[in-house]
Amino acid sequence: MSSAPLRADAVTLAYDARVVTEGLSVDIPEGGFTAIVGPNACGKSTLLRALVRMLKPKSGSVLLDGQEISSLPTKQVARRLGLLPQTSIAPDGITVVDLVARGRHPYQRLLRQWSHEDERAVSEAMAQTHIEELSGRLVDELSGGQRQRVWIAMALAQETPLLLLDEPITFLDIAHQVEVLDLCAKLHVEGRTLVAVLHDLNHACRYATHLIAMRDGAIVAEGPPSEIVTAALVEDVFGLKCLVVPCPATGAPMVVPAASQA
Amino acid sequence: MSAAPYTLPGRVVRVGEAVSLRIRTRTVVVSFALVVIVLALSIYAIGTGEFEIPPGTVVNALLGTADGGSEFIVRELRLPRVLCALLVGAALGVSGAVFQSLTRNPLGSPDIIGFPQGATVGALIVITIMAGSGLAITVGALTGGVLTASAVYLLAFKRGGTSGFRIVLIGIAISYLMISITDYLLARARIEDAQEATRWLLGSLNGRTWEDVGPLALSLAVLTPFVIPAARSLRALELGDDSAHALGLKVERARLALVALAVGLVSVTTVAVGPIGFIALTAPQIARRVARTAGLPLVCSALMGAALTLASDIAAQRLVPDRALPVGVMTGLFGGVYLAWLLTMEWRKGRG
After folding, report:
1. Using CA atoms, how far apart are residues B250 and A172, in angstroms rounded to an integer?
2. B344-350: which pairs have CB atoms within 8 A and are 24 or more residues apart?
3. Average pLDDT of A151-172?
4. CB B259 within 8 A of CB B153
């Protein structure tokens, strides 16, 4: 068992009185690209919110590098754990480089607004996401895929070994979905630990090295997609009759819904 | 180190590795221009009136090198009023910028979300029911304003999530409630009380002296240092709560601190001159459009607020011959036009 930089230990998560998940434990493998999948309202985004300490567990704990995350200073957490939220807001009239530069917030102070470190990190983040030529453009004017790359660049500028993405491709067309996931795969190969909540099971199988399948607030299966994704699992998790065949392009498991019975 | 392959807007000033400041050229130029405008307006406001004083003499009087008569008129009679206008305007500008950034809505200013209306009700209760005066009215106004702001905050923010639109809608509802209570209190008040009360319906700078400037300047001096960390929190919060959180900001705490600062600034101005409408609403938006910043620039908003308030007061004093109108009339007139324009623009953008 590899060490887990991020782990939930018997967490019970609830919004006010509504309990989403009880006594859930999960390890995020070091250096992996973990995808959390499951039907709507299965608790996958809730789990992600708990992992980034945006939702405080009713019981149990979330551990970042072995330490209780809620006991760590928020700035210190922000240097180890990055998040691409489902919805972000670009202030009116902000340019690409200005937005990416905001990722340096946890490193900056009143009199230290733009160090050489900041400059290097922003420059690298923009190069990694191929947005250098957009640097002076207004974020409002970009296409959906470009905009998502800019937000990822902002998260990268934060220079965290762990990066969590909450449904990073939900509002993109298929070409932009692949573009963003290819970028994620590249970041993973370059050494970051990634965790993404994904809606599309085929995308998850193709890109993730570790899959966590959830239903009704519980984990049904976890492991490498090629080992755990079967027709039985998909029916169990999503209630969908399907075939699982090797993807013609990558060989990863591919889920094909069965012909309609109606 | 290789040169950065992109251009960061503005300049970076570095002193060793420890100190580095980002300075946006356009913001600096706009701020400087606004300072010049404010100074020019001040000299004009001080120099004109029943007794005209040429600009040169005004400057000399301010520096203490003019004759006794001019010096008395400039320093004792006219300067306090101008300083009041500038300080109140600056405080309202910053307060409005903070509120609008927090609610992510150009309508989210203290006037729209009920603070002045609450302060008015508080003052009227003291005047008409408790027959209080002076300090009691001030305390009543503050209590009313803070209670109203707290009610809006609790109703809009507490129940999970924070849509800027929600705080604006709840604020409007509460404002109307307060306006109804104001009408009721005025209707049952004695005529003398009602006259005293009108100061609380429209803020006025008439008859301000150094006695008013002192406490105002002192309270603002206390609040101003908090604007600097506020600006930093705002830059993170502008990106949405989740992003701010990811950047290491304690979102709830930062937001409460910002609301407290903004309410504090409005309270101070309300105590000094009563509720002056629309400056907090308009100054930040105009400042942002002129300075072309992402997000609302606090310093430019302060300067813009000062300039607008002073300009409104100059107009209010001179619009009707022989009769000085309360400055609130002018800011209302000017702000109403601006608000109509703003809503039209928002509608075109499909966000109304």
Report:
1. 30
2. B346/B106
3. 93
4. yes
CATH of the domain at B281: 1.10.3470.10
Nearest CA in chain B to A162: B246
Q: Could A114 and B8 be called an inter-chain contact, meaning their C-beta atoms sit closer than 8 Å? A: yes
Chain A interface mutation, best of B247, B290, B298, highest count of A Cβ atoms under 10 Å: B247
Task: Quote the crossing angle between the two packed helices B298-319 and B79-103, to the nearest 10°.
Answer: 130
Contacts of A53 in chain B (CB under 8 A): 245
Quick check: B299 and B27 in contact, CB under 8 A? yes
> What pLDDT, in 10s, does the model give residues B167-223?
888 888 999 999 999 899 988 888 888 877 776 777 788 888 898 899 899 999 999
Domain that holds residue B173: 32-347
Q: Is residue A194 classed as helix, strand or coil in its secondary structure?
A: strand
A contact test, residue of B1, B8, B13 with most A CBs within 10 A: B8
Q: Tell me if ipTM is over 0.95.
A: no
B117: in domain: yes
Residue B160 belongs to a domain: yes
Residue B14 domain-assigned (yes or no): no
Residue B45 amino acid letter: A
> B13: part of which helix (H) or strand (E)?
strand B11-15
**Shortest distance, CA B217 to any CA of chain A (angstroms):** 25
- In this prediction the pTM is 0.89
């001040």: which residue's tokens?
Answer: B42
Task: Give the number of other CB atoms < 10 A from CB of residue B51.
Answer: 11
